[in-house]
Design goal:
This protein is of the alpha/beta class. Helices cover about 20% and strands about 25% of the residues. It has 8 helices and 17 strands.
Length: about 425
């Protein structure tokens, strides 16, 4: 069951909405959660506002964190650099040793200090509770940090469950120089049970393929020639170049939709709106696949349930943006943080484009998923994380298929997963 209603925008309008409304909604929602946790965390301390701080007196404050970054891009600086003769170099990460954090609520803001709060971990937009005291310099010395933690999770009904598989793939990039049509066909043949024979290992693979119940494509399915997207009138030969990758993708999707349900999410490079939540790719792009009721064009983020297992995932923009403004050892660390902060895209709208919602923040995580996946990453990674109330989440980082030939196969009976590697190298 697809559950993307919260990410759909029925009537888009850009008539003077301010992004402050998203931050206000986020703070109001998260503060209610954090206040309910404070009495268990620090029951002996009062909860103050920034304006109500008293020097030297320990307390708890709850607010939105702002990260002051020396290297954060500025539109005015970008413009001036682009007009200069010196080539513009864009760093992969904008962190600097002078970065510091500020906490803000409706009453004011205060600079944060102390070793308990590492600026490398946090980003602008997170709502947190802080235990500390105001110093003589006017800073708030942080002694301890309270995050919301994993949201409540619906239990999985007990009992034996038969093996069923969901295949996750991202970054097909049909039309790019890195894409390999033969590799795509191997993927299609495996999903539809046409790969191999009825002997030995191939028979076992065919048996598992027969248990695949859904394919989820997590963004960046096509790569259109950027030079043809500058708004100019296109000659007929250029138009064919523009639509050829989409036609090729539709052929692949049609072959799969005949055999099983297919969910396709938009990504950064797909012909969809740029800002999150990205709306479903228009069905007219896929005349072949959309003829089947097994084909579903979904939003990004995408949420669905299968056999009481709740899936939640994105095409990767939220994690890629976190990697620009914070630090972690691996992709899974970023993913875990978003769940424990209870927010899919904390850097939106500060550095990640999003629609200016006025009455809600759709990226708040109110129900913890059982499976959380993110597409278009460098490597395949997975781990299981646990929550304080028995929550258990399978994290999956899905690599770009066009670069790695890897898709991910998840068994929903036990939430175990493994990589599927497709290679056209005769020597491998």
């Amino acid at each position: 069951m697809v559950d993307d209603e919260e990410y759909k925008i029925e009537r888009e309008t850009y008539r003077g909405q301010q992004y402050s409304q998203i931050y206000f909604t986020r703070l109001h929602h998260m503060r209610t959660i954090l206040h309910s946790l404070v009495h268990l965390w620090k029951p002996h301390l009062p909860v103050n506002t920034v304006l109500g701080l008293e020097q030297g007196k320990e307390c708890v404050i709850v607010g939105t964190i702002y990260k002051h970054m020396k290297l954060k891009p500025s539109i005015l600086e970008e413009y001036s650099k682009e007009r200069s003769a010196v080539p513009l170099v864009r760093p992969h990460n904008f962190m600097h040793s002078d970065d510091h954090l500020v906490l803000e609520d409706e009453s004011g803001r205060v600079k944060l200090s102390g070793d308990s709060l590492d600026p490398r971990v946090f980003v602008t937009g997170i709502v947190a509770g802080l235990h500390g005291k105001e110093t003589s310099e006017g800073d708030f010395l942080v002694l301890d940090v309270l995050e919301a933690g994993l949201a409540p999770q619906a239990p999985i009904p007990p009992g034996s469950r038969e093996d069923k598989y969901v295949v996750l793939v991202s970054g097909l990039s049909v039309g790019s120089s890195a894409s390999n049509p033969l590799q795509f066909q191997l993927l299609v043949d495996h999903l539809t049970g046409h790969l191999g024979d009825e002997k030995g290992k191939s028979k076992q693979e065919q048996s598992i393929a027969s248990q695949i119940v859904r394919l989820v494509i997590t963004g960046n399915s096509v790569e259109l020639p950027q030079g043809l997207l500058a708004g100019q009138n296109l000659a007929s030969k250029d138009q064919s170049k523009l639509f050829e990758p989409i036609k090729e993708l539709d052929i692949l999707l049609t072959q799969i939709a005949v055999a099983m349900p297919v969910d396709i999410m938009p990504g950064l490079n797909d012909p969809a709106n740029f800002a999150l939540p990205q709306q479903p790719l228009h069905r007219c792009l896929f005349p072949g696949a959309s003829a089947y009721n097994t084909f579903t064009s979904c939003t990004n983020p995408h949420s669905f349930k299968l056999d009481n297992i709740r899936f939640l995932g994105t095409s990767g923009q939220n994690i890629d943006d976190l990697a620009k403004y914070s630090d972690a050892t691996e992709t899974l660390d970023f993913m875990e943080r978003t769940l424990r902060w209870r927010h899919l895209a904390p850097t939106a709208p500060n550095t990640l484009g999003c629609y200016p919602f006025t009455d809600r923040d759709p990226f708040l995580i109110e129900s913890c998923p059982h499976v959380y996946f993110v597409g278009n990453q460098k490597n395949y990674e997975t781990r299981v994380i646990k929550g304080s109330e028995g929550q258990s989440v399978r994290l999956i980082s899905i690599p770009k298929f066009s670069e790695t030939g890897i898709a991910v196969m998840l068994n929903i009976s036990n939430l175990e997963c493994h990589a599927l590697t497709f290679s056209t190298d005769l020597e491998s």
